Amino acid sequence: MAGFVRHRRSKRIIATLTGFEADLLRSLAAQLVELLRNEAAVPHEAADPMEELFAGSGFSGPTTEPDDPVLARLFPNAYRDDGDAAAEFRRFTEGTLRDGKARAAGTIIDTLEEAGLPPEPGSDEITIDVDLDLPTAEVWMRALTDLRLALGTRLEVEEGDEDYWYSLPDDDPRGQAHHIYEWLGYLQETLVLAVAG
This protein's superkingdom (predicted)? Predict the structure, then answer.
């Protein structure tokens, strides 16, 4: 398993992924895009003329925390002790934040496909060279963070619970999903180091 490194001469950030790893990453990113797009809350009815002016402009969105735990983790309340302020903040920001997170995950998909990932599932026999400039690498960092948060929330990962995960049998799907969670963390860490280097 290779992570990201910074090329000394070109300063570009590169990684070589197996076809299986690239397919897995593309699939996770696509699932996140689908969740962000399909679970978007229906805009509420405008309560005053100013709200009507902003309706459909991207500045009028949901006012309540999402029911889905992953979305609630990705879009937490901005004001824990002030429900009205949290609702107003969410109304003016969540739509834009959703779009940004979906675009970032889409960048992972686009980059992998541009690198030559075939439409059919790959294998460990083929490899994909991912080559990122600095701005694209920063988008990847944000998307990898979102992917880890989403998977960690679904798995209910908690700080200090490593013994539980390592005690699961090799064929337990939860343990396998946790290995993917750790792999995403590894990719994220090597990418951060490569960008900083």
Answer: Bacteria
